[in-house]
Design goal:
The complex is a heterotrimer of chains A (430), B (196) and C (309).
Chain A: E1 2-10, E2 17-22, E3 25-30, E4 39-42, E5 47-50, E6 52-57, H1 70-79, E7 82-87, H2 98-111, E8 115-118, H3 134-139, E9 146-148, H4 157-167, E10 173-176, E11 189-190, H5 193-198, E12 202-203, H6 205-222, E13 226-228, H7 234-247, E14 252-256, H8 258-262, H9 284-296, E15 301-302, H10 331-340, H11 347-362, E16 379-389, E17 408-418, E18 421-425, E19 428-429
Parallel strand pairs in A: 1-4, 1-5, 6-7, 7-8, 9-10, 10-13, 11-12, 13-14, 14-15
Antiparallel strand pairs in A: 1-2, 2-3, 5-16, 16-17, 17-18, 18-19
Helix pairs in contact in A: 4-6, 6-7
Chain B: E1 13-18, H1 20-37, E2 49-52, H2 57-72, E3 78-80, E4 112-120, H3 124-136, E5 141-149, E6 161-165, E7 173-177, H4 179-182, E8 186-191
Parallel strand pairs in B: 2-3, 2-4, 4-5, 5-6
Antiparallel strand pairs in B: 1-8, 7-8
Helix pairs in contact in B: 1-2
Chain C: H1 12-29, E1 44-49, H2 55-66, E2 70-75, H3 87-96, E3 101-106, H4 111-119, E4 125-131, H5 137-151, E5 158-162, H6 169-180, E6 184-188, E7 204-206, H7 209-212, E8 218-221, H8 226-229, H9 237-244, H10 248-253, E9 259-261, H11 274-277, H12 284-303
Parallel strand pairs in C: 1-2, 1-3, 3-4, 5-6, 5-8, 6-7, 8-9
Helix pairs in contact in C: 1-5, 1-12, 2-12, 3-4, 5-6, 5-12
The chains are: A alpha/beta (430), B alpha/beta (196), C alpha/beta (309).
């Protein structure tokens, strides 16, 4: 079984070429006659990129299967152009042991639409008090290489220091949800003019920036790898720039979510909790700095922080609502809107921030690879000229909490291949 | 009040029923009737109280009182009784600003109260006024004076003093204009799509 | 007016109309034996309170009853709220049961606005009786009514709002309403109790109460909530009282005509000296009295004539 993608522009550059995929690999690039059994896809000049890698996804299984399952989340990922996702550990039970991470890993394999890599918890029960068995999870079938208490900050500096030190022996990375909890007690929205006017308890930028600064120093002293989750403030960008210059490449990395690139706290006047997210939507100034930092490489990659919630957790008063937004199926479009349409990134840049860098950070050998013969055929085909209107109810996720409801966004994923197998095509699975 | 314009478009036609001079003469005639009916005179005991129903009933009450004073030599106390909060058609209209209720210092208890309004139509305004009056005191009797009675009553209510009876169709509107509010005195009939 | 959710964005003409109606209602009811108007006969008004509040709830209840509405009080401890029913379901239940108006107090900012969204279809009016740290519009209206009464007008008058502005919905509602009606507002508070981004509000800011007092026509003292005293917002109650309390000494620094307001409940001796609260400049009981008339006016503007729309 082989697939011939006819007339695609690799990274959106140069003339259209044919790409033949066979046995899970890119077997030929150029002008290719289709083998007899080949499925031929007419790409008509669309952009071919390496399949996307999401370092930050909440698949909710086990525990909240009313919001998302590994199956529905995998479908959303495939439709969004992803070939690998990292499932955060804040499930119920928490993925703080080998049994749970292996379960998630196995369920992902069974579903087979995207590589599901479980993220292990840093501390037992995400409590921030006692290190989880990082080594056992690393050596499990799931081969965990990324640990995070995401949703919670590893706030205790001593625990964070130990986690960073310990992770060096596992060739793992600690992904920190940077939020000083003492500064965000009761916090509901970005601290500033708008929150003050609307009466939201403020969520100061310094709560994020102070932890990022601290963790960069701890990581440096430990010689460990730190990944900063969902960077949301201009100040964090400055801290990251300083730390990366000081530390040299390979130690500190960072991600930004699509929603922090596009949305701002201007949206909060409706009190509609679909806009409630952690970290909160910041100002337009922050969003502009995040875009520039992503283009420049100070922020390495885009990660969705895909966070499904059932309707009752969102159709309520703001304070009672759960934070989080869907992201897997809209990420490429938001990146197209904020980075490509603005000229900040070309398609090679999109490949870097959505595929290559995240694969490197997570140490995935077969993802984010160059589009050359012999490489694994984890691919996504994007129609850069098409646009679509987001409808939460039509997304593959069980939940529908997209903040982009009704928005028309550019960039459509038309084909996703996982190791040469079509996982999504023209908005449909398989 | 029911006959006032409510943001209606320019009327198709307008006919003057009473001129400024007619209005003055009508009020004078009504003053004489009040004097006669209430047996007013210099040796009268408690004078009747004239309560105008805002907006246009208030100046009409004042004018009526002035003429009574002129003819009878005694000036009956006047006041205003806003009935907005007592209306039974509030739900059907946009909220309207409240007018002032001003009762004379003499009060209304055990007095003859004469309610004064511009147009008597369905009788709903008067019914509301009677309710309002009850909350302000206990008059000995209540009478009603209107400049125009245009018919179409929906309640068993009739006026004691009528300036002019005007047979109308329901589609028509009768407007009493008073200089204090409208800049001139007149009574006009506006038809709705009917030639006048 | 369909709902009253905030003074932020409330048309000054509409606010003035409500205040004028309140004045008229006050005059109408003055000295009457039977303080009852038939205006809202047959209308059902529900107070839905998720926070304890005696004065606001009672004030709304009296307002509704004086207008002959049927007033039903629902409080969180006595309802299915404590059984975990969502705000949305509670709201829809009340609307289905025939509420013409829901008056809500809720600890979450924006709760009233959310409620209005859910009840839009049912045509039920919503009055915000205090939502989190956001707004308390009827309090601002009654404050404005009291100031108009005492000062004649708000236009060009200078009002100091003193104390915990950060957490105060009363302060927010007053800032918007008083400035919309032409007053100048100066906020006097320690930096820890001022909202971040305060520069964007149409106010001036001061940390020196003594410097402001001689130049104001009114001073509105905000309540210092007990939990703030332990939140590290200021070192001690004593220091707060010394710096920002309205003492008898400070009362003398005010111009002769100046008015002292407090939304209550007061902490005598903390933000306001007992003698100041009871001084002739104090309009604190008038505020409560005007509260009823203002709330009657709000119900009148919401419920009389709603079918027109």
């Amino acid at each position: 079984m082989s697939v011939l993608i006819r007339g695609a522009r690799l990274y959106g550059e140069g003339d259209p070429v044919d790409v033949l995929v066979a046995d899970g690999l890119i077997s030929a690039i150029g002008s290719v006659e289709p083998p007899e059994d080949a499925e031929v896809i007419d790409a008509a000049g669309q952009v071919l990129l390496p399949g996307f890698v999401d370092l930050h996804t909440h698949l909710r299984e086990p525990g909240r299967e009313d919001a998302e399952t590994i199956e529905t989340g995998s479908a959303a990922a495939a439709l969004g152009g992803y070939t690998a996702v990292f499932a955060m550990a804040n499930t119920d039970p928490v993925a703080d042991n080998a049994v749970v991470v292996e379960h998630v890993w196995r369920r992902g394999r069974e579903t087979g639409l995207v590589d599901v890599h479980p993220v292990g918890a840093v501390t037992v029960g995400l409590n921030g008090e006692k290190l989880a068995e990082l080594g056992t999870m690393a050596k499990s079938a799931a081969g965990v290489r990324m640990f995070s208490d995401d949703g919670h900050c590893v706030a205790d500096p001593l625990i964070m220091r130990r986690a960073l030190e310990y992770s060096t022996a596992l060739n793992a990375v600690i992904a920190q949800h940077a939020e000083e909890p003492r500064l965000t007690v009761g916090a509901q929205a970005h601290e500033g003019e708008i929150a003050s006017r609307l009466g939201y308890a403020g969520w100061p930028a310094s709560a994020e920036e102070s932890i990022v600064a601290r963790d960069c120093l701890l990581a440096q002293h430990a010689g460990a790898r730190l990944h900063v989750c969902h960077v949301s403030t201009a100040g964090t960008v400055d801290v990251l720039r300083w730390a990366k210059n000081r530390q040299g490449p390979g130690f500190i990395s960072a991600e930004v979510t699509p929603h922090h690139l596009l949305l701002t706290d201007e949206r909060l006047a409706t009190y509609d909790p679909v806009n409630k997210v952690n970290p909160p939507l910041r100002t337009g100034g922050d969003a502009a700095r995040l875009r520039a930092a992503l283009a420049e490489g100070v922020i390495d990659c885009v990660a969705t922080d895909h966070a499904p919630h059932p309707v009752q957790d969102k159709d309520c008063e703001w304070a009672a609502a759960k934070p989080g937004m869907l992201g897997l199926q809209t990420a490429l479009s938001v990146v197209t809107e904020t980075m490509v349409a603005t000229g900040l990134l070309d398609w090679r840049g999109v490949a870097r921030v959505m595929s290559e860098r995240p694969a490197e950070i997570a140490g995935l050998p077969d993802q984010g690879r160059p589009l050359v013969t012999g490489e694994p055929a984890n691919l996504v085909l994007v129609d850069p000229d098409a646009a679509w209107t987001v409808r939460g109810a039509e997304l593959a996720s069980l939940a529908a909490n997209t903040p982009y409801e009704g928005m028309r966004l550019p960039g459509v994923v038309t084909l996703t291949l996982l190791r040469g197998r079509i996982t999504a095509r023209e908005g449909k699975i398989g | 009040m029911a006959s006032r314009p409510r943001g209606a478009a320019e009327p198709d036609g307008e006919r003057e029923l009473l001129s400024s001079g007619d209005v003055a003469r009508t009020i004078a005639r009504m003053a004489h009737q009040v004097i006669e009916k209430t047996a007013l005179g210099a040796e009268s005991g408690d004078l009747p109280v004239l309560l105008g129903i805002p907006t246009r009933g208030t100046p009409l009450a004042d004018r009526l009182a002035a003429r009574i004073a002129e003819f009878a030599g005694v000036a009956p106390p006047t006041g205003a009784l806003d009935i907005t909060l007592y209306r039974d058609d509030l739900r059907r209209r946009p909220p309207r600003p409240l007018a002032s209720t001003q009762l004379p210092v003499t009060g209304i208890d055990d007095r003859v109260v004469i309610l004064v309004d511009d147009v008597l139509f369905s009788g709903r305004t008067v019914r509301a006024a009677l309710d309002a009056l009850r909350d302000h005191g206990r008059p000995r009797s209540v009478q009603l004076a209107v400049l125009v009675d245009r018919g179409h009553r929906e309640f068993p209510i009739r006026a004691d003093y009528v300036g002019k009876n005007v047979p109308t169709s329901r589609a028509e509107e009768v407007h009493v204009l008073v200089s204090e509010v409208d800049g001139r005195d007149a009574v006009v009939l506006r038809g709705k799509g009917e030639s006048v | 007016m369909k709902h009253l959710l905030a003074t932020d964005g409330l048309e000054p003409a509409l606010a003035t109309a409500v205040l004028d109606t309140a004045d008229e209602l006050k005059r109408t009811l003055l000295g009457r034996e039977v303080r009852k108007l038939p205006t809202l006969r047959g209308r059902t008004v529900i107070t839905l309170f998720y926070e304890n509040s005696t004065r606001t709830r009672v004030s709304f209840e009296i307002a509704g009853k004086w207008m002959s509405a049927d007033v039903i009080n629902v409080s969180s401890s006595a309802s299915s709220v404590s059984k975990g029913e969502s705000l949305r379901d509670t709201a829809l239940t009340l609307a289905a049961a025939g509420a013409d108006c829901v008056i809500i107090r809720h600890p979450a900012s924006g709760a009233a606005q959310r409620l209005a969204g859910w009840l839009d279809e049912a045509g039920t009016a919503v009055v915000n009786a205090g939502d989190g740290m956001h707004e308390h519009p009827t309090q601002a209206l009654l404050d404005a009514a009291t100031l108009r009464e005492r000062l004649g007008t708000l236009d060009g008058r200078r009002v100091a709002i003193v104390g915990d502005v950060l957490h105060s919905r009363v302060a927010r509602s007053n800032i918007h309403l008083l400035t919309a009606l032409g007053a100048e507002v100066v906020l006097v508070a320690p930096p820890t109790l001022l909202p971040p981004g305060v520069e964007a509000l149409p106010v001036t800011v001061s940390h020196e109460l003594d410097a402001e007092l001689p130049g104001v026509d009114a001073v509105m003292m905000l309540r210092v909530q007990a939990e703030r005293m332990h939140g590290g917002f200021f070192p001690s109650a004593r220091e707060y009282s010394i710096a920002y309390g309205l003492s008898e000494q400070r009362l003398k620094m005010l111009p002769e005509h100046a008015v002292v307001l407090h939304p209550g409940p007061m902490l005598r001796g903390m933000e306001i000296a007992s003698a100041v609260a009871d001084a002739p400049s104090s309009a604190i009981t008038e505020q409560v009295r005007n509260g009823v008339h203002v709330r009657m006016a709000v119900l009148y503007h919401l419920l009389a004539g709603e079918d027109e729309k």
